[in-house]
Amino acid sequence: MQTNFTLAQLADPDIAEADKILRACVHCGFCTATCPTYVLDGNELDSPRGRIYLIKDMLEQDRPATAEVTRHIDRCLSCLSCMTTCPSGVHYMHLVDHARSHIKDTYRRPLGDRLLRVMLAKLMPYPRRFRLALQAARIGKPFAPVAAAFGLKRLAAMLRLSPWQAPCRPLAAQVFAPQGARKGRVALLAGCVNDLLMPEINAATIGVLTRHGIEVVLPHGAGCCGSLVHHMGREAEALEQVRANVDAWSAVGGLDAIIINTSGCGTTIKDYGFMLRTNPVYAARAARVSALAKDISEYLAGLPLRPQGNAPPLVVAYHAACSLQHGQRIIRQPKEVLTKLGFVVKDVPDGHLCCGSAGTYNILQPDIARRLRERKVGTIERLRPDVIAAGNIGCITQIAAGTDLPTVHTVELIDWATGGTCPPRLRDHRPRAAMHRAGAAD
Ligand code: SF4
Ligand code: SF4
Fold this sequence. Notes:
- The chain has four domains: 7-106, Alpha-helical ferredoxin (Fumarate Reductase Iron-sulfur Protein, Chain B, domain 2), CATH 1.10.1060; 112-161, no CATH class; 174-300, 3-Layer(aba) Sandwich (Rossmann fold); 315-437, Rossmann fold (3-Layer(aba) Sandwich).
- Helices cover 52% and strands 8% of the residues.
- It contains 27 helices and nine strands.
- The structure holds iron/sulfur cluster (2 copies).
């Protein structure tokens, strides 16, 4: 694609990067067929190619974002399905990140939208604050249908997604010793939401790692990965969170890997090197952090895991989180590990399409998110699985809100099959005959 940035514009490294990305696009349109928002409504402006044109025009003219551009960029899930499809290697992620930051700097959103975004940005990345918010949401949860009836769709979506049970407490900084001789040492990103909503994910991660001789460090000072505010265009806040993590992980010596069990965070952490590339103090350390970052399934695929006979051969519908399959190109490892451990893994048809979770998307764009969830749950339920597994708490929450099937993190099944305990959501659910046939023991 031909671009027309001036030399003065190209002196800005972000514009120079955008120019490089735009020039790679040959506007073939292959990406439209795999874009969830285009698949739903067939609007070219809600396709990757359409959005690329809108961004190009906005940046070239150095214009403030308009309401129309903002609407179409807001509808993008950042699922990155378009990047997997694109034959020209267009780095859409960096382009849309830049566009979101430009929108944040130049467009004044309606008051309600602004307030909601500030609230999400100031609460969700901070576990203690978010815990209080979740406790308040429990009181309001029964009123979700009332909120929806009054047209308060985003409030209704927030209440529906919040859990009925009280949120747990976040894990403190500490070291989990390996069982037996130490064979490795990793840092774990505890995440902002995991411990509050599903502490079993971190427990399973720590359990399976320490049982296999890996020391797990939760360092002081590590917090939210920054992706939540990054995807809202709040670049200054995102970079502050990124730098704090780079400092925290760089201070821990002898790490073999930084383990992430929320794939949305993993995609961002693997991009820290790019995000801080122009910062002379942080660039090298950020690149090192990105190089060390590994999704838990990626790391476990390299360990000698053996089934211990305590998990039955359940049929698992494996939902590939977009951030894992498109953002990190981790496709086979989770399925191979589950299969090796005795589970019967089924791919979900149209698995390249997002479930509608996408960070805060299911709150900010509740209608599209609901339609994507219904489509996803329909394809999953047709497989008649015993359990749904995914590598991202956002997907788990989103899918679980639309089905009665138990939905767990992949690492919970891996932990169970290698000598850990049955995932609580499965234990409570007691799935069909397979569990009883196999006489499953916890
Ligand atoms: S597939 Fe790639 S090159 Fe083709 S229109 Fe989409 S982004 Fe551009
Ligand atoms: S990131 Fe996803 S929603 Fe956004 S343009 Fe690409 S395929 Fe479409």
